[in-house]
Design brief:
Blueprint lengths: L1 E7 L8 E7 L7 E11 L1 H8 L15 E9 L11 E5 L11 E5 L3 E3 L13 H14 L7 E5 L4 H12 L3 E6 L4 H6 L4 E4 L5 H4 L4 E6 L5 H8 L2 E9 L15 E4 L6 H13 L6 E5 L4 H9 L6 E4 L4
Parallel strand pairs: 8-9, 8-11, 9-10, 11-12, 12-13, 14-15
Antiparallel strand pairs: 1-2, 3-4, 3-6, 3-15, 4-5, 5-7
């Protein structure tokens, strides 16, 4: 059977993305074949396509490591899911992704999709929500009564982080732009600082337990924020291209987050979506053929919110 896929044969600007016809793959042991309902679009897709991220891929490569869909067939030894199941998962970033009509996925990366939202929209959940969860609870060990600053809280990871931190009982100070201020406040932030007009470090006048940086702030601002962390606290960052400040003398740790697939965590995040405690906000749903244009917008910094590709819509 022939399927449509969007892939690139060389790294470069968005023009290297090509819509292609390929043979539908067959799942090996431990794998499943999904009919793709949705493929999440992430900034890292842009970096991988350009060759800027040190993630080893084999060319040609299909982007889209966040996937939702229906299990069509399973390989030997698969017990986690069955044919007909509607699932969601964070696929290995080194493998071909879900910007295609069908995709091979490791069964161990998949969980039942949320039932309260459209199956395609579920592809907007895995990697961003896992990033927020792991940053808050694995790296920062956030718990009730603590104070946290979240920079870049208006992004898709940031909104999940605000909701999860508030659910954990933390006091949340968030930075955002004027455009996203209302959304961040609605997510539960106790204080919202417009970082386009105000330095967060200049108004955070009481010690905090955690700084979670999700934005490309200046090194000077990052160091100033880290200085607001109490002794023994932690600075966590997803901006791997810049150093995460620490202070050994005060016992302040600096940690950079590299998100990973975790089936149990993703299942809990799905549960929170279905309980109404988390939201999956999709800004746009696009057909497969529109992906190069979206990558161009990513490159230009013109994407605000989560975009999902719907290959079979």
């Amino acid at each position: 059977m022939i399927m449509k896929t969007m892939r690139f044969f060389e790294t470069g600007d968005p023009s290297v993305l090509m819509l292609d016809d390929v043979e539908t793959p067959t799942p090996a042991a431990g794998q499943v074949l999904l009919r793709v309902a949705g493929a999440g679009v992430n900034p890292a897709d842009n970096g991988i396509r350009f060759g800027r991220l040190p993630i080893p891929i084999t060319l040609p490569h299909t982007p889209g490591y966040d996937a939702s869909g229906t299990v069509i067939s399973v390989g030997d030894g698969v017990t986690e899911v069955a044919v007909g199941d509607e699932v969601v998962g964070f696929l290995p970033m080194t493998d071909d992704g879900a910007a295609a009509e069908y995709v091979i996925a490791p069964a161990e990366a998949l969980v039942s999709a949320p039932t309260s939202i459209a199956l395609a929209d579920a592809a907007g959940l895995p990697s961003v929500a896992l990033t927020a969860w792991q940053a808050l609870f694995e790296y920062a060990d956030l718990h009730a009564g603590q104070r946290i600053v979240i920079t870049g809280a208006g992004g898709v990871v940031g909104l999940h982080a605000v909701r999860l931190a508030k659910r954990a009982g933390a006091h949340v100070i968030a930075t955002a732009t004027g455009r996203s201020r209302a959304a961040v406040a609605d997510a539960g932030a106790d204080q919202v600082i417009d970082h386009t007009t105000t330095s967060a470090a200049s108004v955070v006048d009481e010690p905090v337990d955690v700084v979670l940086n999700l934005a490309p702030i200046s090194a000077e601002e990052f160091v100033a924020l880290a200085a607001r962390v109490r002794d023994g606290g932690v600075v966590v960052s997803t901006t791997a291209w810049m150093a995460t400040p620490s202070d050994e003398a005060r016992g302040v740790r600096g940690v950079t987050v590299f998100v990973r697939s975790d089936r149990d965590q993703l299942a809990e995040l799905v549960r929170l979506v279905d309980s109404g405690e988390l939201r999956v906000d999709i800004a746009e749903r696009i057909p497969l053929a529109a992906l190069p244009e979206v990558h161009a917008r990513l490159e230009a910094g013109q994407v605000h919110g989560k975009i999902v590709v719907t290959p079979t819509a």
